[in-house]
Design goal:
Blueprint (H helix, E strand, L loop, with lengths): L1 H19 L29 E3 L2 E2 L3 E3 L4 E4 L2 E4 L4 E4 L4 E4 L6 E4 L4 E5 L6 E5 L11 E5 L11 E2 L10 E2 L9 E9 L4 E2 L3 E2 L3 E4 L6 E8 L6 E4 L2 E10 L6 E4 L3 E11 L13 E3 L16 E11 L4 H6 L7 E3 L4 E5 L2 E3 L5 E3 L7 H6 E4 L2 E3 L5 E3 L6 H7 L7 E3 L3 H4 E3 L7 E4 L3 H5 L4
Parallel strand pairs: 1-4, 2-5, 3-6, 4-7, 5-8, 6-9, 7-10, 8-11, 9-14, 10-14, 11-17, 14-18, 17-19, 18-20, 19-21, 20-22, 21-23, 22-24, 23-25, 24-26, 24-27, 25-28, 26-29, 27-30, 28-31, 30-32
Antiparallel strand pairs: 12-13, 15-16, 33-34
Length: 430
């Protein structure tokens, strides 16, 4: 009898934990622990004793015992592999706007550990978003531009920054347990670098447990390619947290975006997720696959302590923007504290074909001023009726963030998983 009682207790514990993890980021423990850093401007990283500059054209290994400064534009070329030991620190130089570019055919193997992550950060005493460039990884997986070739046109060498090809299974290496802090420099008259740019990257590339914090541009930019992205964290970026374009095919899983009303740009491009098929329609080959993002167990939240006041002040925008000809399938995800939760491009006709390409199922929409709208249209009855259908199992609530997440304001170890029983408690509210 005692054994049966113990077994029932175990089953009940597992069931309750599963209920807690049903939507949004999930895990029996808080997978943010140990490797993330939510106050990187308070960390004393030490002084560099090695310089990284110019081209890396042979296999090279960076060692934990050194601290490296990334000076100017550093290119990994000639199919070389740059390997970085767990625990290694690389500091982006503010004066020269250090940027690491992994060219097509080369690889970056930055395989950190949960207890020993690899860190890229700024060398300024007062660190700020945009202090240095960022990391750019270029592969030969398909993109939807004519000729299947793109060029990452920043202040970089145009002969070394092409990407795209026919190799869906392209392998650009490993980024795992990596932090990228204060990247995203502004290039005058051009654009802003992302914390991490993945352009034409293929599905043999391992991309797991990557945190980008305080990016001056987008945290993560996906330009074409075929990628699996798991346990990504974007924290307080100026522009988008996750931007998808150029026909990328992305399986996006168990990831987090935390926005701040006071860090976001007030211009277009300050959303948790922006899903587009192209930047310029005239450059797009519509015989190729257009952007498809399948996003599961994503948590997107605004960490303001007074969402309604920030919405009234015009500081809060939509969490998700879906442009015409792009597809997004979002499941078991949480959107909390936005205005509204989702915005569809005004060029997207609301018809069966398009609604089948833009799916929201088993969602938890919380504390949003409206859920799903079309751009420039204040009447969303058709969309509310469609996505509110019980067949999609979407949930609507107006709960304070403090009550919604386990411990989101913990300064050292925040926990953005949903509170136990939150879904069941609010499932009737619309």
């Amino acid at each position: 009898m005692k054994k049966i009682t113990q077994m029932i207790c175990v089953l009940l514990t597992v069931a309750s934990m599963n209920a807690q993890q049903e939507k949004g980021i999930m895990g029996y423990t808080n997978w943010l622990n140990n490797w993330t850093e939510f106050k990187p401007n308070k960390v004393e990283y030490g002084e560099a004793n090695q310089i990284l500059a110019g081209n890396i054209s042979v296999n090279t290994k960076l060692l934990k015992r050194n601290i490296y400064v990334l000076q100017g534009n550093v290119y990994v070329t000639n199919n070389a592999v740059l390997t970085i030991e767990p625990g290694t620190l690389i500091i982006g130089d503010f004066e020269t706007k250090g940027t690491l570019v992994v060219t097509k055919g080369a690889q970056l193997v930055a395989d950190g550990l949960e207890t020993d992550p690899i860190v890229f950060t700024s060398n300024r005493s007062q660190k700020k978003a945009g202090d240095w460039g960022g990391i750019v990884v270029l592969g030969d997986a398909p993109i939807n531009k004519f000729g299947n070739v793109g060029s990452y046109n920043m202040d970089l060498d145009p002969t070394l920054t092409t990407y795209g090809g026919d190799n869906v299974a392209s392998n650009s290496g490993i980024l795992r347990f990596v932090r990228i802090e204060f990247a995203g420099k502004k290039v005058k008259g051009v654009d802003t670098f992302n914390g991490l740019t993945l352009a034409g990257v293929g599905n043999k590339t391992i991309l797991e447990n990557i945190m980008v914090s305080y990016a001056g541009g987008d945290s993560f930019g996906f330009l074409g390619g075929d990628v699996n992205a798991t346990k990504f964290v974007s924290y307080k970026s100026i522009n988008d947290d996750y931007k998808f374009s150029q026909g990328v095919q992305c399986r996006f899983y168990n990831s987090l975006a935390v926005r701040s009303s006071y860090f976001s740009s007030t211009k277009d491009g300050s959303r948790c997720m922006e899903v587009k098929s192209y930047e310029k329609k005239s450059e797009t080959d519509f015989t190729k696959k257009q952007t498809l993002v399948v996003a599961t167990n994503i948590t997107m939240l605004n960490d303001s302590e007074n969402i309604n006041a920030d919405i009234q002040a015009g500081l809060v925008k939509e969490a998700v923007y879906v442009a015409e000809n792009a597809s997004l399938e979002m499941k078991r995800s949480v959107i909390s504290g936005f205005n509204p939760a989702v915005l569809l491009d005004s060029k997207t006709e609301i018809n069966d074909a398009n609604l089948k390409k833009i799916k929201f199922e088993e969602m938890y929409f919380n504390l949003c001023k409206g859920n799903i709208f079309t751009e420039y249209n204040s009447n969303n009855e058709d969309l509310e009726s469609w996505y509110g259908n019980s067949v999609f199992f979407n949930v609507y609530s107006q709960s304070d963030n403090k009550e919604t997440f386990i411990d989101m304001f913990n300064p050292k170890k925040p926990d953005y998983r949903l509170q136990l029983g939150k879904i069941t408690a609010s499932s009737g509210n619309r």
